[in-house]
Amino acid sequence: MKKVFAILFFSFLLISCGSTKNTGKIPEEIIGSTTATKKPVRKVKPNKNTRVTKTNTRKVEETEDTVNESPKDTRENIIEFSKTFLGTRYKFGGTTEAGMDCSGLVYTAFKKEDIELPRISRDMATKGILISYKDIEEGDLVFFRTSRKNTITHVGLVVEAKRGDVKFIHSTTRAGVIISSMEEKYWKDAFVEVRRII
To answer: Is the CB of residue 157 less than 8 Å from the CB of residue 109?
Structure first.
């Protein structure tokens, strides 16, 4: 009797599976399982802010805020961002595309990488470490005295440091945000020190 019941039950299962209409769609509950009819998954190249993990056999992208960048990458990001302000007019106390001063440019470029610096150049000159001019690198800060006062009044961000040719981006009262060379007599005479923040 048990055998007859088992055969009838098995036959019922076969008949019910065979009567299901094939719609060509994969039921939601089996998406992601290993089947021959599974649609190919488009590969997503993770960028530096993306982490790909597996959850219930599905790939999930998660944004990760704590991505470790090398100091060199951070310096390059700061330099590239500062260059987006080239041609911006000078504005005392400014930190936006509407206008900025020298320390405003440096402050804004570093802040983009979550590095807080003081807002004025003479206070920036108390941060980081003092570097010999011969060891200057891209991303270092150069400080100047541009008045008769015996204090730092101007700052620039080094964007190029090749032998004998150091260029820095800064904001000037006359031309706004520009790139200048340390070989220009005015800047050579006004130069005070180099500091490395990163």
So the answer is: yes
Q: Which of 101, 106, 154, 157 is catalytic?
A: 154
Residue 110 is among the residues annotated as catalytic for this protein: no
- pTM as predicted: 0.66
Catalytic residue among 107, 144, 158, 170: 170
pLDDT in tens, 68-125: 679 999 999 999 999 999 999 999 999 999 999 999 999 999 999 999 999 999 999 9
Catalytic residue among 78, 100, 102, 158: 102
Q: What is the 3-state secondary structure (H, E, C) of the chain?
A: CHHHHHHHHHHHHHHHHHCCCCCCCCCHHHCCCCCCCCCCCCCCCCCCCEEEEEECCEEEEEECCCCCCCHHHHHHHHHHHHHCCCCCCECCCCEECCEECHHHHHHHHHHCCCCCCCCCHHHHCCCCEEECHHHCCCCCEEEECCCCCCCCCEEEEEEEEECCEEEEEEEECCCEEEEEECCCHHHHHHEEEEEECC
> What top-level class would CATH report for the domain 71-196?
alpha beta
Active site residue 102: yes
74 belongs to the catalytic site:
no
